[in-house]
Amino acid sequence: MNMRIGIDIDGVLTDIEQWQLDYASKFYYENYNKIIVDYKGYETNEIFNTGQECDDLFWNKYFEEYSTDVKTREFASEIIDKLKADGNEIYIITARGSSLSKFNDTTKLKETEENVINWLNKNNIHYDKLIFSAEDKLAYCINNNIDLMVEDKTDNINKISTKIPVICFNANYNEDCNGDNITRCFSWYDLYAKFIMIINS
Question: How do residues 104-129 score in pLDDT, each as one tens digit?
Answer without folding.
Answer: 554 466 778 899 999 999 999 999 99
